[in-house]
Specification:
alpha+beta; Jelly Rolls; Arc Repressor Mutant, subunit A; five-stranded antiparallel sheet; about 40% helix; globular; DNA-binding; transcription regulation; HTH_AraC-typ_CS; AraC_lig
Length: about 290
Amino acid sequence: MRSNDINLFSYSHRYQILLPLLQAQSHVFYTGEHCGDWHSSPADATRCVFHLVMTGQCRLHEPDQPEVVLRDGHVVLYLQPQWHQLRGHAGQNAHMVCGYVDFKWPLSRYVLQQLPSRVICSAEQEPALRHLLALIQLEQPMADTYMLQQLCDVLLSYILRRELCQPVDALSYGLLSLAQDPTYGVVLDAVWQQPEHAWHGEQLARLVHSSKASFYRRFKRLTGLSPTQFVTMVRLFWAKQYLAEELSIEAVAEKVGYSSASALSHAFRREFGINPAQWRLQSQKGGSEKEV
């Protein structure tokens, strides 16, 4: 549950930090029409899934939950893996686009754990969603998988942005709590904007006018992370962005606050199992990163 009593103050710009940290990537596994008496379930129940109802109707079934009727323009997005099934409804055909969504970045879970496990949106209430679905529908006959996936990425980002802007449950913890905290939110801003700075506990504590011990306790309660873990993850996020720009490993290390290329490589290998040069080579070849 979410509390509506939380003041979102100047939070409006911080979802622009959290959205890239999610690094959501879609993979379309089905596009087509169901008709007659049908039912289908995702082949892999351990992954997050999305379903777009382009035309027609169907029913969404989950264990121990009332069925939900989905109609033209409905989007269902699971932010946590959950078994579910789509079924025919009242003899209606249903034209669907279905896919998996992967969250590649280690910090993703510290955002996702504060979002609803399932989101249902309707294009009737959201014009932007209606336009995106229209583009997807236009692209389907072209059978261009790459373009279809790019459009689904944009659609998912739109929905995630909307969810990130909602007040968070005051009793939960994660990066949304940090972003929405009227005092500690400045820590997110500062580390994001200056990953090259030599951040340490006392400096971060001074940002919120707190002692080091009190800061550590409050930060851990808000996020579930130590300040050091948080700074490291933000630095490695920016390191990947700079590596994609063909900067040298030494230059990347300097831009994200590591004393040397070997220090960056050590942190990179500890987190991802490969060094920066190997990651860049995989990225250039279209290879997949190690998922964490």
